[in-house]
Design brief:
5 helices; 5-stranded antiparallel β-sheet; Heat Shock Protein 90; alpha+beta; single chain
Length: about 170
């Protein structure tokens, strides 16, 4: 029998710097009791904060008139957070290769000092999907709950062998 997704909470935050803290607090409250370990919860909070900051800054260009929509879903064995901004029209092509952050190149000035966001996010969660539908740009973050037996126990992955890094 397939488990239907159940929405735990849906809310918006205005696109103003600092509102990522509101988002991570609401998400943490929503997933309490969902089976995430304390480590998983901290990683999810970090990923939600970073993805919300990206949505505010890059998707909605710090325009407080535009909201970031956040939905938390219980997927039966996982929890997912969808973070939606209005930057779909100018989102990076999901098929385009994104250069992985390289500390040596950044220190040598061969790479922008920015560009750690998606790398950090994808290494904090079990799954990250990015998709665009018209003006809507969505990042879906998922963590497997302890009850599913799929929760990650190891340290966050590095870039080698992580095919998702090449998809971003």
């Amino acid at each position: 029998m397939a488990y239907e997704e159940r929405r735990l909470v849906a809310f918006t935050v205005p696109s103003e710097p600092g509102n990522e803290r509101l988002a991570l607090a609401r998400v943490a409250e929503a997933v309490a009791g969902s089976g995430l370990s304390p480590d998983q919860l901290e990683r999810l909070k970090t990923a939600v904060a970073e993805a919300t900051m990206n949505a505010i800054e890059h998707g909605n260009h710090n325009n407080a008139a535009l909201d970031v929509d956040i939905t938390v879903i219980d997927g039966g064995g996982s929890v997912s957070v969808l973070i939606v901004d209005q930057g779909g029209a100018h989102a990076a092509n999901g098929d385009a290769a994104v250069e992985l952050p390289d500390l040596d190149k950044k220190l040598a000035g061969l790479q922008s000092p920015r560009g750690w966001g998606l790398f950090l996010i994808q290494n904090m969660v079990d799954e990250m999907d990015v998709f665009t539908d018209g003006d809507k740009h969505t990042v879906r973050l998922s963590m497997h709950t302890a009850s599913s037996g799929g929760g990650r126990i190891a340290e966050p992955r590095g870039p080698e062998g992580d095919s998702r890094a090449e998809q971003m």
